[in-house]
Amino acid sequence: MNLFQTAGLVVCITSICCFSFNLFVSRGIFRLTKQNPMFYLILSQIVCDCWGLSQTFLLALETFIAYKIPVSNKLSALGSRIGLYTICMHHMIIGVNRVHSIVLPHQYKNFWTILTSKITIVILWTCSLTISSVTIYAVDVSEDDILGHCIERMSYCVPDPTSAGYRLEIKINLCYYGTTLSLAFLFYILALIKMLVDKCANMQKRHTKMFFAPNWQWNMHVRLCFICFLTLLPMFLYMYVLFFLRPATPVTVLLARWLDNFNDSVNATLLFLFSKRVRRSVWKSRTSTSHVMTVVSSSKQKTPQ
């Protein structure tokens, strides 16, 4: 096992730990009611984490046993094709949780309702199935090319830019990263516009001209938007390393793989760790809500007529 395979295993182990931590934190979904929009968004995140965990575990296993266990070409090519299919779907679905699940459900409940949450998730899953199917099964690539491309990924060696497998990866990356970035920026811009509209409306009500007045709620909006923007940076770096750094070297290939895994797993972990708003919404229990309603009703009964 060479240095790059060892580094790849370290990346995979780190991603597995992060995915496991995300699943542990996401168990707060059982404390949420189905009337809460966060229920459906966290459910989609759990699906992404399970998919990414199994995918990363298989990648680590393949990297460890590469060239040691003989496997038939047809079986390896079929596994590679299925792996590319799941990778494409995983990156497409994770777009639903990259930006709008952090900003919109917590701040703009009138804008982001249960119905729009369901519709958005259904649309993204449909797009994932359709685009990934067309991208993978409509490309004229032989099984040997896919097998060779799979061996290149497992051994972390320099890919051949002229191979059909490498061109297939370029098409897939352009497909799902372009769609994910577009969806992320769409919801990001909608959140910023809604935030500015609310700010202008509050200014008109208070008859003030101080746009950047000290306000804890406004500061929280800015902080959440900044955190969401940081989650997009690994995607830009990955696309830059993969598509624009030429000629490709083992270092750039390993950097691209690491950024890919970092984008999937570590970002979600950082959001849970550094965003109090996210943690409070996830861990808010039904009992606390019912307790508040009980206190309110009892206080109403005690008020004199």
UniProtKB/TrEMBL annotation:
The keyword Magnesium does not apply. The chain crosses the membrane at residues 6-25, 37-58, 78-99, 119-139, 176-197, 218-243. This is 7TM_GPCR_Srx domain-containing protein. It comes from the Eukaryota. Coiled coil: none annotated. Keywords: Membrane, Transmembrane, Transmembrane helix.
